[in-house]
Amino acid sequence: MNNPTSNKRQQNDFFWPSYVDLMTSLFVVMLVLFVYSFKLFKDREGELKQANGELKAKAEELEQITKIRRSLERLEGKYFKYDPSNERHELLVPVQFKAGRDEIQDAYKPALLQAGRTLRTVLKSIKTDQPVRYLVIVEGMAARYPAGDLRNAREEQTTYQLSYRRALNLLNFWKQNGLDFGQDRNIELIIGGSGFYGTGRYQGRREGDNKRFLIQVIPKVGRMQ
Questions:
Q1: Cβ partners under 8 Å of residue 46, min gap 6
Q2: Which strand ranges, in their side-by-side order, compose the sheet holding 80-83?
Q3: Does domain 75-221 have CATH number 2.60.120.10?
Q4: Which of 98, 105, 151, 167 is deepest in the core (most CB within 10 A)?
């Protein structure tokens, strides 16, 4: 006959090892889940720190750009006027070119030279907490002929070259008089010509005033190569 006490002892002998194995397995599973959750938390914490660092850097950069823009207000006056709608400066020297020509007449040169000196002085005087480089765009423009004049269509493409040469002549004139912006490490100079087109043009009776120069200064904050 089977001994009930013996059977009960055998069941207990099987139960406890199985129970210990089950608890051990659960512990291992919980440990793995804990380690995995901890890793996810640390990864997320690292991403948040990186995001906060990037946001802080962007905020500091924006602060510097705002400070620079306020400093560029010193350009406004006798030689420059700020155009808020197009976010650029217009050279106020009333340069007039002969039709189809790119030579700068002597009468305008003293004022143009002083305008160049003002531009360079202001850019070099701006103090910032971070390195800054200025992208300076000098754009030449051209005026259309009266409405209906066939030269508007015939010379449409060549006026791009004409307005570019006008801007180039201005830069060469400055350079000949000791204003070589290319030697300034923190200034990157671009010359352009918009011909009969471009934003912010004068219309109607003021069409002739489009024979002018536009100066656009774009600050770039950050490490300089």
A1: none
A2: 80-83, 88-91, 213-221, 132-140, 187-193
A3: no
A4: 167
